[in-house]
Specification:
Layout lengths: L6 E4 L3 H12 L4 E4 L14 E3 H8 L4 H7 L1 E2 L2 E6 L2 E7 L11 E3 L2 H13 L4 E4 L4 E6 L4 E5 L2 E5 L2 E3 L6 H6 L4 E17 L8 E5 L8 E7 L3 E8 L5 H7 L1 H10 L4 E16 L3 E2 L2 E3 L5 E2 L7 H21 L9 H24 L4 H14 L49 E5 L2 E5 L5 E5 L4
Parallel strand pairs: 1-2, 1-12, 2-8, 5-14, 12-19
Antiparallel strand pairs: 3-7, 4-7, 5-6, 9-10, 10-11, 13-16, 13-17, 14-15, 15-16, 17-20, 18-19, 21-22, 22-23
Length: 443
Amino acid sequence: MYDGPPVVVVGNGPVGQTTALLLARWEIPTVVLDAHERREAVGSRSICQQRETLDIWDTVGAGRAIADEGVTWRVARTYYREHELFQVAFADSGDSPFPPWVNIGQARVEQVLDERIADAPLVDVRWGTTVTGISQDDRAVRVETTRGTIETPYVVGCAGARGEVVRAAIGAGFEGRTFEDRFLICDIRCDLPERELERRFYFDPEWNPGRQVLMHPCPDSTYRIDWQVDPGFDLERERANGDLDRRIRRIVGSVDHEVLWCTVYRFHSRLATTMGSGRVLLAGDCAHLMAPFGARGLNSGVADAENAAWRIAYALHGWASPRTVDGYAAERRAAAENNLAITTSTMDFLVPQSEAGRAHRRDVLERAVTDAAARAEIDSGKLYAPFRYGADRHPAVGALHPDHRLRAAARRARGEFLTHATGGGTWVVRPDGHVAAVSAEWS
């Protein structure tokens, strides 16, 4: 059993919480540092939790609670004005106990993960502790904080977009762009006569002409609504003059409603020039920022946490070479590049930055009303799916192993990959569920 100093996790948001809980599952102690004095539950934020993310949380005892409390949805519809253009239906996958998508606010996810941390003696959370500097050599990392210095074998930076200190420790830039277009986001509680449990995306509806609206159902009869708004939008003025109420009533009608939270956002597309060097790794928003259309932010951050945790655990237990940790940066940066390419393409269609781009979007949407082929050109957000780590030796290599119950042919010992013999060959599965190799000769 590992008996060395704890791993340091910088940032106690959901990615940092997941990292610490996964390391604890591997019997690795952690110290979680966060500059905030306490947890602050603010708005819905990242609401769409994907099946494989729930699977990861389930390994630390949180997936079932999050799934049961959240709202399950299986259909995503896209509209242009009054016309429904198409819908995407998400099917169940194999023997997974979880649905394709569950909507639940980030604040509630954090509460559930906090409950698991409270029961995890290997996780030491230190609020009100600001990291002021990080340095490393080939033996350890020294983390300077406002409450002293910590020496640790590894640091996982989950400090969000403002994690400059962690990025600076590995010389990582944070390159990309900011979209100047603005979006109003509101959490609204109301009882609609026919509560549709599905995602709806509207191009150019009559109640937001020339712009977009996205609507998601959430628990407790609440809805998350995102409006694209004009560059001069003033939320406080809109509250004061009644325009916010009128904006909401164009969607919910005359039913009583309560506004729980509102904010105005600009979206970013940024990626750290490296996601890891030596003993310091970056995860979640500390490593990549992306527009939310497609739910690729938190879901990919949780996948970062899982990749980092098993690699660090295997290195510290001596089950694998420390070089195993080096593979994190290449794999997860490739995943981030893929996610950013997809979300940036979505934003370029949603909020084109040139008159030619706007004319193209109008043309595509107009044609799509009667031409099914044109609908393939519409990008209202390609929803997250786990990244397949590039490998061309076999169609399955690099992908997640399919969900099904493993029988006697499967085995796993501490420090070993899982092997699963089937009629199609033997599959070697990594601790994070990705297929490392497939060989018919081994079966």
